[in-house]
Specification:
Metal Binding Protein, Guanine Nucleotide Exchange Factor, Chain A, mainly beta, nine-stranded mixed β-sheet, 43% strand, 140 residues, globular, 12 strands, single chain
């Protein structure tokens, strides 16, 4: 089985995800922007059973970012690394930047693109999705 390891900035939290991953994509929602202090976040979706915390359970804090979703971050360095939600039950979303090196998927699209920041240009040819769900096709 192929696994990919990742960590927070201070490496007190170490995890691995098992391939195959479900998907990889960029999220432009306002909550991801605020949580990460960035224009967008690239996530990797993995089945819950494919995510394993190897070290740092005592350092992992879950923040209720909405009624139905939580974001996981390191209590020591503050790295926002994880997302889980009732909407995607059975999945853990892992911030792609926390996993060094290649994985089995490249980003396939832009979710919540209608909330993207106006100070970044995107000409990568990936699908642009938006609307209420964040995953509805947008007109080009």
């Amino acid at each position: 089985m192929t696994v990919f390891q990742g960590s927070c900035l201070c490496s007190k939290i170490l995890f691995e995800i098992a391939a195959p991953t479900k998907w990889c994509g960029h999220c432009h929602c306002n909550m991801c922007q605020s949580a990460h202090g960035a224009g967008f976040v690239t996530w990797v979706g993995v089945p819950t059973e494919g995510f394993h915390l190897l070290r740092g359970e005592d350092q992992l804090i879950w923040y209720n970012s909405s009624e139905a979703a939580q974001r996981g971050f390191c209590r020591c360095c503050g790295s926002t690394m994880l997302f889980r939600s009732e909407r995607w039950a059975g999945e853990v979303h892992v911030a792609r930047a926390c996993i060094p090196g290649p994985i089995d998927k490249q980003p396939a699209g832009h979710a919540f693109f209608d909330q993207h920041v106006d100070w970044l240009a995107f000409d990568d040819g990936l699908k642009r999705l938006g609307g209420e769900s964040g995953t509805e096709p947008l007109d080009a």
